[in-house]
Design goal:
Blueprint lengths: L11 H6 L7 E3 L2 E4 L5 E4 L1 E4 L13 E5 L4 E5 L5 H16 L20 H28 L1
Antiparallel strand pairs: 1-4, 2-3, 4-5, 5-6
């Protein structure tokens, strides 16, 4: 038995409910110009991208109300298939808890849970990289 999801009936709140709790969420309306020249404001949000393999630290995924359904677009990676797979999996689990859809990008592995030691090493490396970038920029400024 196959379950179909009527995406036209889903609201922006349905999509927002399926985002990970750690995602940043910022209200950002989108202006749309109608055929008669009037501009209306559509409700929309910017959040961290949910595409597989995209570690998004700054919100780049925009969710807003389109003409017929909710529209999403990541301004950083633009990976629409992976974002579709993410939301499709979430809605399948919501409407039919026994089903699972992996989508076309299933071969990309989800990030594994890191140990505290791995987290410490990763943070040290990020801090070192940040310091190195700052030092390199300062050195370039001095060379001018």
């Amino acid at each position: 038995m196959s379950i179909t999801i009527d995406y036209d009936s889903l609201t922006l709140k349905d999509y927002l409910d399926e985002l990970p709790p750690s995602n940043q969420l910022k209200w950002q309306p989108k202006n749309k110009t109608l055929a008669n020249g009037k501009t209306i404001q559509l409700s929309g949000y910017t959040t961290n991208c949910v595409a597989a393999g995209h570690n998004d630290f700054n919100p780049s995924l925009h969710l807003y109300e389109g003409d017929k359904r909710i529209v999403h677009h990541c301004y950083s990676c633009g990976n629409r298939e992976s974002i579709n797979s993410y939301f499709h999996n979430k809605f399948l689990k919501r409407f039919n808890p026994n089903s699972f859809y992996e989508g076309p990008l299933a071969q990309q592995k989800e990030s594994k849970e890191e140990t505290p030691e791995e987290a410490r090493r990763r943070i040290e490396k990020e801090n070192t990289d940040w310091v190195n970038r700052k030092a390199k920029k300062a050195w370039k400024r001095r060379q001018r």
